[in-house]
Each structure stands twice: as structure tokens, then as C-alpha cells.
Amino acid sequence: MSETTTTTNARTRERLESDQQEQEQTDTCPECGGSLVNDTEHGETVCGDCGLVVEEDEIDHGPEWRAFDSSEKDQKSRVGAPTTNMMHDKGLSTNIGWQNKDAYGRSLSAQQRQKMQRLRTWNERFRTRDSKERNLKQALGEIDRMASALGLPQSVRETASVIYRRALGEDLLPGRSIEGVATAALYASARMAGSPRSLDEMARVSRVEKMELTRTYRYIVRELNLEVKPADPEHYLPRFVSDLNLSDETERRARTLVENARKDGLLSGKSPVGLAAAAVYAAALLTNEKVTQSEVSEVANISEVTIRNRYKELLEAEDLSA
Fold first, then answer.
1. CATH 3.30.450.40 corresponds to the domain 131-224
2. pLDDT at residue 19 above 70?
3. CB 277 within 8 A of CB 299
4. Cα–Cα distance for residue pair 222/224, rounded to 1 Å
5. Cβ–Cβ contacts within 10 Å for residue 293, how many?
6. Would you state the pLDDT for residue 1?
7. For residues 265-275, b (16+ Cβ closer than 10 Å) or e, as one string?
8. HSE of 139 in the Cβ direction (CA atoms, 13 Å)?
9. pLDDT tens sequence across 49-76
């Protein structure tokens, strides 16, 4: 090793040691050795122990505007929406607005409107580069449509989008329809989130038959190793009670009926939707609220015969526990 190289390495080490010492000095108070705190509101760096102002008139790297409510903040913000799995490009692409106006709010001429329409068309074509992205775009649109019809929250839609992306990435779609896999992903996501929907409800808003949905769901869960627990009747109770405009007391009694039936082993092998509907009907009778079997049947999308059979079993379990 030459003498020049040795000298250069020594200088580099000295500079690094000097920078490290300066960094340690700037992180501690020069008076008491306490830790320093950045006060962004006043643009100062102060000691958290003795209150000494070490630096002042610092540069504020935040926005130069102020907002007093969420709408004003969104209007003034210069960043886009957060990324989301519910869009095929995760929301990173740009969109051309549908308003035929310029930046000053003035209407465009006929020639400019025609040009903007052509740009929108080509922009839409460029957003999907290949068949895989077109597949994903169609499926995510189906998931969003069905979730809106079923009243499922945003978190369920995000999880369903992730499940479909995994199925597409692991090449599980050949031989199955896009709508079927999308419906199965949404059904699994709803059960995993604790807000399940019955197969009949899913088939009603989907474009596939119930039998195809069942087969596809089992295939997706098996191939992706999804941890989907058996549906609990208690997960259906809040929705049924809300749709029937019943009281909180009725929901509490329904939960008690389901819990007593679980202790007696009556839940095994029975539909959780039917048990939840029967528990709501039986609880309404016990709390003297007016509700008919046909109303409960319509909300739960099951037959009245199932409600009659199940609610008698629930009342018998209630009598035995008492």
C-alpha cells in the first residue's frame, strides 16, 4: 500500500470521527447534557431537561398553507390518494378529468373537447398494459360492486383484493371464471373479518351460481392456505337486529340463546344463518317485540320452516340451562 493511500485513509477516519463527535454534540444539550427536542411550532431546538434554546429560526419543511377542516385540507393538499389494492395499478396512475374546462374554469372549444376525449380514450387503454392487468381490473371492479351491494366495509374489500391478487399470481384462474374467483375471494374475506354473508346473499349479488361459488371458494381456500374459521351465528345477530329495527335487549337475549345452545352442543352441523335468525325471532318473543317469521325469513334469506325448527330448539336449551 502506498504512502498516499495510507494518508487518505487516515484523513477519512479523522473526518468520520469528527462528524460523529459533532452529531453526538448536537443531540445533547451543551449545558446539562440532556436530550434535545425539536419544537416545530416555534422553529426551535430546545433542551428537554433545562429548557435551553440551542437553535432558533429553523426552516419549516411543512406546507406553507393552513387548513381548518378535512375538506379544506384535501383541497389544498398537493399529494394524491394513498395506494390501495382495490385498483389494478394500486392507484398510482393518472386520470384525466371528465369536466371539459381548463385550469381557469372556462369551457373548452369543440375542437379541444374532441382532443381531450381522444386523450381520455388512450389514457384508459394505456392503464392496462396486458391481459393480466385487464383481468385484475375487471375482477376488482366486481369485488367493489358486490361489496357495495352487501354493505361490506373498506377493510373487507382490501382483503378480498389481496386474496384475488394472490390467486392470480399463483395461476389459479385457468378453468374458472373471473366473477367466480372474485366472489369467492370476497366471501372468504368477509368471513375472515368477522362480518360474514351467507352463500345465498353472495349468489344474489354475484353473476355466478351458488354451486360454482361453493366449488371455487373451497378451491381458493385450499390452494392459498387461508385461515377461515367456521362462521359463528353471533356474527349475524347485529345485522339481523338492525335490519328488523329491534332493541339492544333483543340482541342481548339472542346472544344468550346462542351461547346456551353452544354449551348444549346444538350448533354442530347446523347452518349459522338459520340459528342466528331463529335466535333473533325467539329473543323478540321473549322481549315482547312484534316481529313475524316471514320478516325474519326475508332478512336472513332462509325459509320459515328452518326458523320454526331452530327457535324451538333454542328455547328448549334455554329452559334446560335455567
1. no
2. no
3. yes
4. 6
5. 17
6. 47
7. ebbeebbbbbb
8. 31
9. 888 888 887 776 667 677 788 777 777 7
Higher-pLDDT residue of 218 and 268 is 218
Do 196 and 231 meet the contact criterion of CB atoms below 8 Å apart? yes
Domain ranges of the chain: 3-51, 131-224, 233-321
Q: Is the dihedral of CA 316, 317, 319, 320 positive or negative?
A: positive
302 to each of 134, 203, 246, 271, 307, how far by Cα in Å?
A: 37, 13, 19, 10, 8
Percent of the chain at pLDDT > 70 equals 86
Q: Which fold has domain 233-321?
A: Cyclin A; domain 1 (1.10.472)
Grid cell 434554546 — which residue?
A: 53
Q: Give the separation between CA 45 and CA 25, rounded to whole angstroms.
A: 13
pLDDT, greater one: 129 or 292: 292
Q: What integer pLDDT is reported at residue 219 of this predicted model?
A: 94
